Amino acid sequence: IAVEPIVGLYADTGRRRQLMVIGAVLFGFGLVLQGIAPAFWLFLVGATFQAPASGVFVNLAQASRMDDAPDRRENSMALWTFSGSLAVVIGPLLLTLMIALGSGWRAFFIGSGVLSIVVALMIGALPANRALRSVIEDDEETEEDLSLRERLRAALDILQRGEVWRW
């Protein structure tokens, strides 16, 4: 809850891809740490990494998906919701299968963590594009030089608009 608003202030800059990669790596690291944890305190450290990193990675991936084709946001949101629902079904089934085959939940966590890190590397290797905020068009203003205070002020200004609250 404390990390995501700060990340959100930077999400519309050229740092979006970098934030997504960091989020995916930390999420994967947290899962791997949970999978190898010999004691509860280390499992808790992994969960502490995983929770905010998951939000950063997933939220920015969703925003990028919506920004990729603004005229198809409804379709993109439907696909996003479907894929999330599919993951909610497949994840427990895969975990159940792994336990039934004798490998246990730890292997599932480690495998999921490694997969997340692989996805992070794939995101980092994507060509520059507008949805990832890694390309700035000539007619766009860059927000790279805005301070955190200026970004916060701009966000608060937007929140004063009735239309924002309405939607």
Q: What oligomeric arrangement do these chains adopt?
A: single chain
Number of strands: 0
What percentage of residues falls in helices of 4 or more residues?
over 70%
Distance between the termini: 22 Å
Low-confidence runs (pLDDT<50, min 5 residues)? none
Overall, the morphology is globular
Main sheet characteristics: none
How much strand content do the residues show?
Answer: under 5%
The radius of gyration is 18 Å
Q: What's the number of helices?
A: 7
Query: Order of helices and strands, N to C?
Result: HHHHHHH
Q: Which secondary-structure class do the elements indicate? A: mainly alpha
What would the average pLDDT be, to the nearest integer? 86
Structural summary, described in words:
The chain is globular. It is built from 7 helices and no strands. With 167 residues, it is mainly α. 75% of the residues lie in helices and 0% in strands.
